[in-house]
Amino acid sequence: MLKQKLERIKKVFDTPNLAKEFHPVPKVFKGKEPKKSTLGPGKKTTQWEGERAKLIEEFANMDITSCEIKFEGCWKNNALGFAHIDKRKNLRPEDLPSVVLACTPCHQTVEAWNNIRMRKFLLEIIKKRNESL
Ligand SMILES: [Zn+2]
């Protein structure tokens, strides 16, 4: 049962978001060593990748499989991602689990707001969700 739910939500997350996922591969010419980057993923990114996998499972457990923001023009369960309660640069490790499941248009709308408004709005959704669980 849970496994099925997990498969379902994973499928939703597999929906490719070409705007974010398109990584063109530069052509490497013969005789030239491909440039090696010494920059690994940032600490926050790595931390978030692990957190993200956990969150997908948690959200499946809570039966949350579509956008929680639901503005007009919401894509519901298409192109879902997690909206953080703060801008990425201000994010503290303890904030990482505080996220709202959001479709791309809804996510973009709240991202365009200032920090305070976005944080308040998203925390309210999390609070309401916890109350109804
Ligand atoms: Zn939405």
Structural commentary:
With 133 residues, the chain is mainly alpha-helical. It has one domain. The protein contains five helices and two strands. A two-stranded antiparallel sheet has the order 1-2. Zinc ion binds next to strand 2.
Compact overview of the structure:
By secondary structure, this protein is mostly helical.
Any key phrases for this structure?
133 residues; mainly alpha; two-stranded antiparallel sheet; 2 strands; binds zinc ion
User: Based on helices, strands and strand pairing, what is the structural class?
Assistant: mainly alpha
User: Which molecules other than protein and nucleic acid are bound?
Assistant: zinc ion
Number of domains: 1
How many strand units? Answer: 2
Radius of gyration computed on alpha carbons: 17 Å
Strand order of the largest sheet: 1-2
Order of helices and strands: HHHEEHH
Determine the number of helices (DSSP H or I, runs of at least 4 residues): 5
Largest sheet: 2 strands, antiparallel
Distance between the termini: 19 Å
Report the mean per-residue pLDDT as an integer. 82
Shape: globular
How much helical structure, as a percent, in the residues?
40-55%
Q: Strand share of the residues? A: 5-15%
Low-confidence stretches: none
Fold topology:
Elements: H1 2-14, H2 18-21, H3 43-61, E1 80-84, E2 99-103, H4 104-111, H5 115-132
Antiparallel strand pairs: 1-2
Helix pairs in contact: 1-3
Zinc ion binds at residues 67, 69-71, 74-75, 102-103, 106.
